[in-house]
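@channel sequence for tomorrow's demo:
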Amino acid sequence: MDSTYFTAYNTCDMNTQADILAEDIEFYHDQGGLATSKQEILESIEKNICNKVTRVLVEGSFEVHEIKGYGAVALGLHKFNNNHEPDAIPKPSKFIGVWTHQDNKWQMSRIISLH
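structure tokens (generated this afternoon):
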């Protein structure tokens, strides 16, 4: 699901992103603070990320841990390439995603992004 979400993120597929993000999303960003409006998060991604930034998972860093009866926690390192500065070297940063699994559907309900 991480791959599915970030393929949509990297290609600006807003419909897939909207489907994967839970209605009660909480996005904790160490620099931007807490965001809880799904609509505002999607609008921010469309305005600030689409065609500007590409997320790349750091190979070998990804972990997934089941949360019995709820879903899973995914964590690892990723980098964000600035598409307008191709020579810039991005620094890896940590992420944590809490995924719910209900009615045979996976959704991200909590995101923690640490730079």
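heads up for whoever presents: The radius of gyration is 14 Å.
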